[in-house]
Write a structure and sequence with these properties.
Blueprint (H helix, E strand, L loop, with lengths): L25 E2 L1 E3 L2 E3 L6 E5 L6 E6 L3 H20 L2 H17 L1 H12 L3 H22 L13 E2 L2 E5 L5 H14 L3 E5 L6 H12 L7 E3 L4 H9 L5 E5 L2 H11 L5 E5 L5 E4 L5 H13 L11 E5 L3 H12 L20 H16 L3 E3 L15 E4 L6 H4 L6 E7 L2 H8 L7 E5 L3 H10 L4 E4 L18 E2 L4 H6 L2 E2 L5
Helix pairs in contact: 1-7, 2-4, 3-4, 4-5, 9-10
């Protein structure tokens, strides 16, 4: 007799149309308003994480190409910065509208090249990309009233290096404020996810953005190094690993270049005993398994008050058993592919370390696809603060669960990290939220939610999570000379 009380629901495949995104067999560099071949003829393959198949060959920028791009940006700077600010805003509005018009295409392209589920690129990434351009378009002619100094002026050429976890969104975070403030840009996308940046270059052409205002030079680490160290760059903005961020800080020290770094994280998601557990579980899942855990501010450490530990873990395990891992283009998919073989190796190494150090691993029943790079959602309980999985950034779908008895112990454990990017607090008491937020050494503290972003809200960290802010009025300051006399 069928169980009519607790029916199960099977999801039929609901794939998004792959052919919405047109992928060419090869791409060049975008310099001076047009696509050009690399000076040294180098190229690299960009690969689809879900299948391991090559998508396209992409031109690899050399030091000579970076020099060409910086020179193009330098030539464009005087006219761009001298334009009436309202005109710069109009260009940003135009770009934002084109992004909205092409959002479905861009979401498919991002999913194919990155591996994240289509419902995340469609419902989170692309709306935020457009929102950042709209937001900063509105700021373009209001900088004098932003409280950023008596005579805010653009810096010049901004060299920007972005990661692979949110390729188009990180591009928007950096290019939108730079252009609104009157700067020109040379951007290097991550070598594993260059396609949406190159699609954005097409959008710049479609918007009739003056040549040289935005230049995009794909490549690996040496390309980024050449951009950071180029003497014609006035401002460096980097999002990525703490190790690379430290190297960039050393490279620009004493050069007079302005620098912002948004680096790694090991966020604590704190659940107090009065928290609504079902809501907290949804926030925990969003905090660590969104984008396969490829999030710098992921809530990878779960701190649970001892009295509710067993209930929280049980409900969390039950919830994870319902997550669907598979084809990123399927609208029902919750967890997509790990971005690269290298990143999967890193995640697997730390999972093995967690087991070796004595933590208890739990994974839901999960069939991994035969091709591509995949890792099941994973929970570790019995984790000590000395374990590598509690100290190191995993950047994958792995959650470490620790316990605490008192609020003071929760704060002490949350702050016991070299990072300081984000944190979360779950409680029904507003006074406790404010008490915890005041004591947490994190750039962003979410209350009864997690991984919520808005272009009007500044984002950035403390300690080894970097310095400077992106987004909001504070993010504009990173691209301006305040004009103050010191």
């Amino acid at each position: 007799m069928p169980d009519l009380v607790t029916p199960t629901w099977d999801y039929a495949p609901a794939p998004e149309a792959r052919d919405l995104a047109s992928i060419r067999s090869s791409y060049g560099l975008f310099i001076g308003g047009r696509f050009v071949d690399p000076a040294e003829g180098g190229s690299f393959a960009t690969v689809e994480p879900a299948t391991g198949q090559v998508l396209a060959e992409v031109g690899e920028g050399s030091a000579a190409d970076v020099d060409r791009a910086v020179r193009a940006a330098r030539r464009a700077f005087p006219r761009w910065s001298a334009r009436p600010a309202v005109d710069r805003g109009r260009y940003l509005y135009r770009i934002a509208r084109i992004i909205q018009e092409r959002s479905r295409e861009l979401a498919v392209l991002e999913t194919i090249d990155n591996g994240k589920p289509i419902r995340e690129t469609r419902d989170v990434d692309l709306p935020l990309v457009a929102a950042h351009f709209f937001h900063h378009a509105g700021w373009a002619d209001k900088l004098a009233w932003a409280g950023l100094g008596p005579d805010p002026r653009p810096l010049g050429v901004a060299g920007q290096v972005i990661p692979w976890n949110f390729p188009l969104l990180m591009l928007a975070w950096k290019i939108a404020p730079a252009l609104a403030c009157g700067n020109t840009v040379v951007l290097k996308p991550a070598e594993t996810t260059p396609l949406t940046a190159l699609a954005f270059a097409e959008i710049c052409q479609e918007a009739d953005l003056p040549p040289g205002v935005v230049n995009i030079v794909p490549g690996a680490g040496e390309t980024g190094r050449a951009l950071v160290e180029h003497p014609g760059v006035d401002k460096v903005a980097f999002t990525g690993s703490t190790e690379v961020g430290k190297a960039i800080a050393r490279a620009v020290a004493g050069t007079g270049k302005k620098l912002t770094l948004e680096l790694g994280g090991k966020a604590a998601n704190i659940v107090f005993d009065d928290a609504p557990i079902d809501e907290a579980v949804e926030g925990i899942v969003s905090g660590i398994f969104f984008n396969q855990g490829h999030v710098c501010c992921a809530g990878s450490r779960l701190l649970v008050q001892e009295s509710v530990h067993d209930a929280v873990v049980a409900r969390l395990q039950r919830r994870l058993a319902t997550l669907r891992l598979g084809d990123p283009l399927d609208k029902n998919t919750d967890i997509g592919a790990v971005n690269s073989a290298e990143q999967l190796e890193r995640v697997s190494e730390l999972v093995a370390a967690g087991q070796a150090e004595g933590a208890t691993m739990w994974q839901p029943p999960c069939t991994l696809p035969e091709w591509g790079w995949w890792h099941p959602p994973t929970i570790f309980t019995g984790v000590a603060q000395s374990h590598r999985i509690a100290r190191e950034e995993i950047f994958g779908p792995v959650l470490s669960v620790l316990t605490f008895r008192t609020p003071d112990e929760a704060i002490a454990k949350a702050n016991n990290t070299t990072y300081g990017l984000s944190a979360g607090v779950w409680t029904e008491k507003g006074s406790r939220i404010l008490w915890a937020a005041e004591r947490l050494r994190a750039g962003v503290v979410w209350a009864n939610t997690f991984n919520r972003f808005d272009p009007a809200s500044p984002f950035g960290g403390y300690k080894e999570s970097g310095f400077g802010r992106e987004g909001g009025r504070q993010g504009l300051a990173s691209y301006l000379d305040s004009g103050a006399v010191g």
